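Researcher: Let's walk through a ligand-bound prediction step by step. First, I give you the protein sequence. Second, the SMILES string for zinc ion. Third, you return the three-dimensional complex as structure tokens. Ready?
Model: Ready.
Researcher: Here are steps one and two:
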Amino acid sequence: MKSVTVPRINGDRLWADLMALGEIGFAPGCGVTRTALSDADLAGREWLVGKFREAGLEVRTDAACNVIGRLGSGPSGMGLVALGSHLDTVPQGGKFDGMLGVLAALECVRTIRGAGIQLPWHLEVINFTDEEAAHNAGTVGSRAMMGDLSDGELEKSLKEGRPSFAEDLRKAGKDPARIGEARRDPAEFSCYLELHIEQGARLESQGVQIGAVTAIVGIYRYLVTVEGEPAHAGTTPMTLRNDALVKAAPLFTLLPEWVKARDPEMVGTIGQVELFPGATNVVPGRCRFVVEVRSQRTADMIYLREVLKAYAARREGWRVETILEKEGTPCAEPLILAIADAAAAEGLSCIRMPSGAGHDAQSLAAAGVPTGMIFVPCRRGVSHSPEEWIEPAQAAHGCQVLLRTLLELRDRA
Ligand SMILES: [Zn+2]
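Model: Step three, the predicted complex:
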């Protein structure tokens, strides 16, 4: 394959952006907390809009609060290539998960404009809203854009007393009843590319610089509620208790056994448990937790769901509600190849690998948009933590591969 001439991205400028954005919502020892549509997230978006405008992008915020920067190119009938990721974080998260994809895309735009390159399609850089499931199922913005929200999910908050996505969207100045207006025809997109930190240790442990993602894992999530009866912790004898936590507890160790027995590559997690009323001197009257399983294989996730449902059905006071059932999604082979070629042309080592984490890319891929993902290693594979870290050179490598992939696609178009 003949390599095209590709200008160099400015790694210092990209790093300065990452560090500047990483100050918004940062607290010493606690990392970055910029959960979707929180005040910190809104401040981050405002900062991004300023950066987009500076770079010459036309900016709009759609009905799902996705921030879209557009570099128009020629007649309106041309195709569209989108680059993106998310600026929202988990509580006490890092400075790279999501941010790298958006800011590297911005850096690509600056480099393209700086070099006077004309693209044969319109280019969009998108910051998708609530990738990290601050309210309910996550990847809300990208699914809204692809018309893949389920009924009532915007009104449902996973944590009692916390605002729902709909409430927070209203606070951000958008009408949740009009979220349908964020929907776009997947056919509008020639392709979608996302650069992201790996959030695992495979690249680092193998000393590889770039991952060309082959597929994104499927995620099934269920909200399980176990009802007991609240009672005084001092005066209620053990024999007269209906303790919701004690009823729920065996499942916490059963789930990993079920998962391991089914498929060594599947993972299952209970990462959120709530007790009600949640006081040290009250026997828990209700226990609520989220069961999550992830696999490339839909059949394995369905199997786990059925085992969980059967377990709950045999017990008194158990209820299982579906939060999310998202299938594993393959990336587009031509884009996987383009990414691998781009890495090789940049003299960077590259392997093909699946993604065990969910991403906005999945929403677009599931809707039929040809999708490619580029991974760069992160220190010890740690993510969703204040300890999340990448080196400036790793950010620059990812960004340069993103730009080269884009320009290789231009020459193949
Ligand atoms: Zn992410």
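Researcher: And what stands out?
Model: The mean pLDDT is 94. The first helix runs from residue 11 to 21.
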